[in-house]
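Review form for a predicted model. The reviewer records the input and the model, then writes brief findings.
Reviewer: anonymous (R2)
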Amino acid sequence: METNTPNITPTPPAKNNTARNAFMALTGLLTVSTGYLGYELYNTKTQVVTQTQLIQVKATEYDVAKKEIEDINTKFGELKTDNTELQTQLDAEKAHIVEVTEQLEKYKGDAAMVGKLRGELGTIRGLIKTYLKQIDELNTANKVLTEEKAQITTQLGNEKNVTAQLSKDKEDLNAKVAIGARLKTTNMFAEGVKMKGEKFSNTTKSKRVDKIRLTCKIGENPIASKTQKTVYMVITGPDGSIFNNGYDHDEFKYKGQEMSYSAKKIIIYDGDAIEAEFFYTKVKDFDQGKYNIKLYCDDSILGETVLELK
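Model under review:
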């Protein structure tokens, strides 16, 4: 009789199970690591792209700001004015632009700061428009004022010409009146006389002459001033010297200059003709020769004559 022996499957060795489990664990770990590394790689790429984009944005903002500053400087260079107050404001803004330019170079990698500086540049651009308007208004006003000034200057010049002409006419008229108002003499006669007590006789002998006598007629002149007048007689000798009485006060003014006189006579002139007589008493003997005798009054010469002594 045969005995049936049961079939028994052999159990793998325990070490085979351990290896398989280790392999599975390693595979899982590799899978997780690969996923993590892939994720990190993705994040890194994203960060690189983001940083690149930020850098590009920063560079773009900086370049735009630089271009804006160039444009602003160009526009400021075109702003010209003679107004002192406005020019002071322009100079202040130019200094501000220089400051913004320096800040931009200092913080060109700071997007926020670059943005802030661009905001300031925007404000400056707005001010440029305001300045342009003000300068245009000032130029227009100056043009109007210049035209008005030219008109006023022309009118003033015309008025001055009229005034000058009137003044000249007045001066000419006054000169004519002054000339017309001058006293004139007629019948002037000079002689040397020899005194005999209170009487005298004429003589032409120089050694015998005691006095020089002059007679004349001061003519009628209705436009001459009617007042008391002083008439001066001036005798100039053959040597050109003026004969006087030897007193320092024997002088009068003629054409602004002090002049010596030989004799004087005060007359009351009322516009009518009057006869006048002058005497000069010798201080020293008269020389032979010709003596020029003139009469002066009111800064003019009334007449003249010549006496010759032998």
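Findings: Residues 235 and 293 are 5 Å apart (CA to CA).
Further findings: The helical segments are 14-78, 84-106, 111-181.
Recommendation: see findings above.
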